[in-house]
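Dock zinc ion; give full complex structure.
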Amino acid sequence: MTLRLHNTLTRRKEAFVPLDPKNVRMYVCGPTVYDYAHIGNARPVIVFDVLFRLLRHIYGENHVTYVRNITDVDDKINARAAERAKGRNISVLEAARELTEETARIYNDDVAALGCLPPTHTPRATDNIGEMIAMIETLVKAGFAYVAQGHVLFDVSKKADYGKLSHRSLDEMIAGARVEVAPYKKNPMDFVLWKPSDANTPGWESPWGRGRPGWHIECSAMSARYLGETFDIHGGGIDLVFPHHENEIAQSEGAHHNHPLARYWVHNGFLQVEGEKMAKSLGNFVTIHDLLRDWPGDVLRFNMLRTHYRQPTDWTVAGMKESWKILERWYDMAGADSSPRAGGGFLDALSDDLNTPQAIAELHRADANDLAGGLMLLGFDPMPVRLVSKKPVDAVEISRAIGARNAARKAKNFKEADRIRDELLAQGIQLKDNPDGTTSWEVKR
Ligand code: AMP
Ligand code: ZN
């Protein structure tokens, strides 16, 4: 079994050879935390979690370092924070910290419910401003960046191979991109490393005055800090290839004597919903958080993995229903087994550029052992109780059961009362007897 990955840099599937098999290193661009993440954002999280698990399987649990950052400085965050700070005695910076911490917490809970392991490190941009300033200073000294009107810009004309990831020349980029024209730019494709902040905008002291970093420099600084100048895999959604990843490469290589940033660039395709591009204006904006109210996280995860990560995917209710059915059947089969191991055909499929639909097809043919092992490697826990416990609850049925339990307790039939309580618990419903004699319940996910 050899792991092969499609590399956006070469546009080919290549055998994966880590720089150091004792420390395989992967960086994936994380969320900008100002609002609930949508189901499209869940795609890279799930896809790279499967890759993380596969790498741990191949190289050993303690030999893989996975970094996924949190972007907590951004103009959309600042706009929301300014709203939040209104009428309260807090600064915009404090409001931004409050907003981003709250959103990051929800994000972590949501992706944990999707069965994703926490990455090894989840650095926040605002905890790495010093690293960003140092990198920008290096770029200015090396002649890759220039200062103009309080801004620091990367001069793309100084990087001869700019465009190598997106396979576009500067002229093509200028023609195809909606570039921001600004008087302080030498070249329309030059991008911001640092920009000034006014008194009401979060900012940090720097050699160029009080300001804040551009988005791209965050990832260059944080990946260097946690993974070194060159690491193995860099991931994200296909929309990040240009300009974000192209610019990360330009900055990191410019600051690091042209040492490559990452050796394998892996990108997931886009997700749409019921045949349409997801957009707030179309009213089909589906958050992970909302989906988790009605669907078990495992079902959402499984539904995502039924399409190969590089293909576009269409997210539908019909697909989720089908996924639930398959998973429920498999949990019943696999849960009975005690010695799981992933089968050869399954591992071959997964190692072939994370071919999860093929791996799933192998599981349809697998015996209980192979099924349990395959499911576990994909991040599922084949304990039947998990799915059952997450089925949408029937509140009427629960109050009926609570009534029956109260009646049993009144009749001093404690055995029956306990049986009803335990039966509800097995369905994931926990009862709580309140001091005032009433009984309330909650769903344990
Ligand atoms: P953002 O918060 O917009 O920077 O996105 C976070 C991650 O989600 C990035 O890796 C994006 O490429 C990815 N992403 C955003 N929208 C979609 C989508 N509709 N389908 C797949 N991936 C997406
Ligand atoms: Zn990034």
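Observed: The chain has a mean pLDDT of 92.
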